[in-house]
Every structure is written in structure tokens, then in C-alpha cells.
Amino acid sequence: MKLLLSIGISIGVLAGIWTAMSVVLGWSTWCGFAAWATFYAAGGKEEGLKKAIFSNLSGVFWGVVIVQISNLLTPMIGGTVALSIGVVVGAFAMCLQANISLLAFIPGAFIGAAIYFGSGDVVTAVVGLVSGGLFGYVSEKGSNLLMGKKSEEASE
């Protein structure tokens, strides 16, 4: 089976399962899809899963920091300037943390922060990000199975 066909089948089936599961459980479907994309953008496999999850979760952390800075400074300097200062700090930190190998995928951190801002809730963001990363990993394994690849062949 060709690569894109096997990926399409695997992701298609699992995306349907993820959608139904997240709706039934009250989880954020779109947060999971963003994390799923992060998994593939980070290179897939076990290493991509680690990069995706850790960088996404660090982004949630920095998103919370940005909001806290904004909330602290808003009464003194106004909301727009306060939020801008928070973003300066958070964006700088998300880039600087890339010196740590598990946090080296900068786009993942920004996606994590965006997911936090979009969902408005830490738990919603974390559940969606971890679940989406895991679904990405399983979809890659499913694609490899459909192509008849063994684990050692798929990691090459």
C-alpha cells in the first residue's frame, strides 16, 4: 500500500474515533487536532511525540504566564499594553527554552499557547494536547501496519 493512502486511511478512521470520543467526553475536538498536527510537524515517531507533547504543554504554561502578567499590569497601564508585555515575555521564553532538547520544537510551544488562549482553560488545553499527540502517534503506527512495515522498518 502506498504511504499517503495508508496515512489517509489510518488518520481518517482515527479522526472519526477522536471526534466521537471527544464530543461524548466533552473534550475539545479542535485542540486534539492541533496537537495531532504538531506530532507530525515535529517529525513523528517516539521522538516527535515527546517533542510535541512537551513543547505543547510548555506553551500552555507560558500562556498562563502571559495572562497573569497581563492581569497584574492591566490596572496600571491598560489592557493592550499589559497583554503586549506579557506576550513579549512569553514569546521570548518559548524561544529561549529551545536550548532544552525536550522543548526545542518552538512551533509546538506557540501552538500550545494558542490552544490555551483559544480554549480558555488549562485542563481543556492539556487534555486536548496530550490526547491529540497520542492519536497522532497511533495514526502513524496504524499507517505503518497498513503498509506492512514492522516497528524497526518504520523507524528508519
Give a brief rundown of this model.
It is built from seven helices and no strands. The chain is mainly alpha-helical.
Provide a descriptive summary of the structure in words.
- This protein is an all-alpha fold.
- It is elongated, with a radius of gyration of 18 Å.
- Helices cover 83% and strands 0% of the residues.
- It has one domain (28-138).
- It has helices at residues 3-25, 29-41, 45-77, 79-96, 106-119, 122-146, 151-154.
- The protein contains seven helices and no strands.
SSE inventory with pairings:
Layout: H1 3-25, H2 29-41, H3 45-77, H4 79-96, H5 106-119, H6 122-146, H7 151-154
Helix pairs in contact: 1-6, 2-3, 2-5, 2-6, 3-4, 3-5, 3-6, 5-6
Features of the shown structure:
156 residues; mainly alpha
Q: Gyration radius, to the nearest Å?
A: 18 Å
Arithmetic mean of pLDDT = 94
> What is the number of E strands?
0
Describe the biggest sheet? none
Strand content: under 5%
